Amino acid sequence: MERIKTGIFGLDELTEGGFPAGRSVLVSGACGTGKTIFSMQYIYKGAKDYNEPGVYVTLDERPDLIREDVMRFGWDLKKLEDKNLINIVDGSIAKLGMPSEEEFSLPVTGYDVDKLLLEIMRVIKRIDAKRAVIDSIPALGFNFENSNEVRKAILKVSYMLMRCGVTSILVSEIQEGVNKFGKYGVEEYVVDGVIVLHYMGVGTQSNRTLHIRKMRATKHSEDLHPMEIMNQGIKIHKIEEEYNEV
Fold first, then answer.
1. Of 32, 86, 99, 148, whose CB is crowded by the most CB atoms within 10 A?
2. Domain spanning 23-194 has what CATH number?
3. Residue 180, Cβ neighbours under 10 Å: how many?
4. DSSP string, 107-174
């Protein structure tokens, strides 16, 4: 099976070489667990290190703020955008009925999943993208009244991304200590993989961990792995590395 290297330091060796090509993976976690960094690292490293164009769809944060934040890791998104290796689709402002200054965005005529999908498909085709991120599912589902409608929307997005041939990440939110893998409790059933990020503060110490809950067609690690946000991005440690340091 073809594998897509994630660009997340230490993750590929836990998943037989990366994500299964053409599949969708849910990345979920509570506030501050590193979901956006994880997802953008996947897009940035794919474009820069593997020459695989990527589309990042932001439904929460403004693109200009994302570009500014990730420069902390030395990730110059604008440089890769100018080369058509990365395109950012702005869906954050459309929810407010305001026009976006971004080249790729939803129209101000109203937030609609079908309009979003059409724009995503257009941008994927434009740069022949191999990777995509939807950040986030809760923002996608804010306009729906029940979980059935959300499930249909997620299924539609996941199916469309698969048909476009991209390997995608869907971002969702959970509360720490809650036995769910997505905000709506349905996301994990319509994707091919589930990665959960945790953040546990203990006194003056803070510990981040990553758990691969599921990855279809993959023999993956089932351990809770220490995760570190470093100057170059996210790094996943093997559990035995931590034991050896003790």
1. 86
2. 3.40.50.300
3. 16
4. -TT---HHHHHHHHHHHHHHHT-SEEEEE-HHHHTTT-SSHHHHHHHHHHHHHHHHHTT-EEEEEEE-
Cα 24 from Cα 91, distance rounded (Å): 20
* Domain chopping of the chain, boundaries: 23-194
User: Do the strands 205-215 and 193-202 form a parallel or antiparallel pair, or are they unpaired?
Assistant: antiparallel
